[in-house]
Each structure stands twice: as C-alpha cells, then as structure tokens.
Amino acid sequence: MSELEQEREAARVATGEQLAALLYHPSAEVLLALLDNPALEEASLSLLLARKDLPTEILEEIGRRKALLKNYSVKRALVFHPRMPRQHGIRLIRDLYLMDLVRFSLTPGVPAELKRVAEEQLLARLPQMALGQKITLARRGPGRVAGALVAEGHPKVVSIALNNPYLTESQLLKVLAREKLASSIVLATAGHKKWSSSYNIRVALVRHSSTPLATVLDFLPHIALPDLRVLASPGIVAGNLQNYLQAEIQRRSHTTKIHPEKKKAVSD
Predict the structure, then answer these.
(1) Which of 39, 72, 141, 189 has its CB 3.0 to 4.6 Å from that of 145, i.e. a possible disulfide?
(2) Burial status of residue 21 (CB atoms within 10 A of its CB: 0-12, 13-18, 19 or more)
(3) Cβ distance 216 to 205 under 8 Å?
(4) What is the pLDDT confidence band of residue 1, given thresholds at 50, 70 and 90?
(5) What is residue 267's predicted lDDT score, i.e. its pLDDT?
C-alpha cells in the first residue's frame, strides 16, 4: 500500500489531534476521504472550509452531500468560500438568512451573477418582512434593495433608504420614472440634501405629476433651457404646469436676447 493510500485510510478513521492535522493536508484525495469520516463534526468541517486554498473538488463534494449541508454554518461557509462552484452557489444562496444575504451581496469580489441572485432573493422576501427588518435593509442593504424600499413608500423607511450609501442615481431615477408614486417618496426626495442637488433627479421631479407645484417652481430656474423645452412638449407634464414652463422659457429667452453674452451661463 502506497503512502497516499495509507493516508487516505487514516483520514477515514482519524480522531482528535490526528483528524485536526489532516484538515490541512494538501492532497485532495486525502481530504475527500476525510469527508467520509464519521468523526468529522461541524467545527472541524468549518475549519476545513476556512481554508482559502481548498481544492474546488472538495467544495463540490461538500455541496453534493445533503447530510453535511443540514448544518447552516457549513452551508454559509461554503457559500462564502471564494472558490465556491457557481452551480452550488446559485442553489445555496437561496437558503441564507437575511443578514447573511446582505453581507454576501456586499462582499467585494463576489461574481456579479451570484451577487444578483442574492439581491433578487432579498427583493423577493421584501413583502413578508417586518418593518424593523425593512429599516435595517434600508440602512445597510445593497442599492437595488434600497431602491425597492424607496419605491414602497413607507414614510419610516423612505428617508432611511435615501441615505443608503449604495443607492445610486440611476436606481432612484427608476423609482421616479414610475407613473404612480406615494407622496412620501416625492417629498422626501425633493427635500433630501444630496438627491435634490442632482440635476437629473431635479428633472425627474419636475416631470413627475406627484411633485408639488412649489417644489417644481423652485427647481425650474436650475433646469437647462433645452430640457425645459422638452418638458414643455405636449403630454410630458400636466397642462397647468406647461404654463409655468412656457413662462420660464420665455423669461430665459428674453434674458438671452438682452444679454447674448450670458447665453451659456443662463442655459447651464
């Protein structure tokens, strides 16, 4: 019997310190034999999965063994392993607890496909979440989830989600592009220091039918003349607002004729 075969046989029956030493064995064959050892408990398996250099075939084998995956900590360690096989990741991510899903979706280096799966799981669970969980997600969750929470319009959640560091302008613009929005969303966005200073957000708010007239009038002087003309086109905004847009366009055009050298400054 070769030395490798002896080590494989030892791995199947080892206990105590001998088993602990085998967790760091370089041979994939020995580690596969170790998985058959009935003395391999949760703590030892977690130490094995903590190895960043663990061969992919070991991860694949653990992912195939339902008996090993009954333990949540093992399942979580497998999902978070940097060498986790894609097919097992897609399947096991769905079983992660809420905050582990959040942590996984925000972990640097996670493949975009797996991050998207985690975010979709969070989005799918939103309808069943308690308010406290939504507040936690609004504060610490990924940008897509924060955007979805803004769109829900709960007054206690919207303001927190707007402060989420992962929320992007494009995600918020998708929310503001919805035809029907709760007034809490529009008011919170219009009154937010960061987002109300964004030019594209201002245009989206001027365009939205739920934005109060006073807010629109505050934003109009800061909208570029070409965009004002687009907004004033038929069917873009309500009829009463078109009058204000046309008045601002005429005022801006009149100013440009009087002071042509200020044309660029006025339009910006």
Answers:
(1) 141
(2) exposed
(3) yes
(4) low
(5) 47
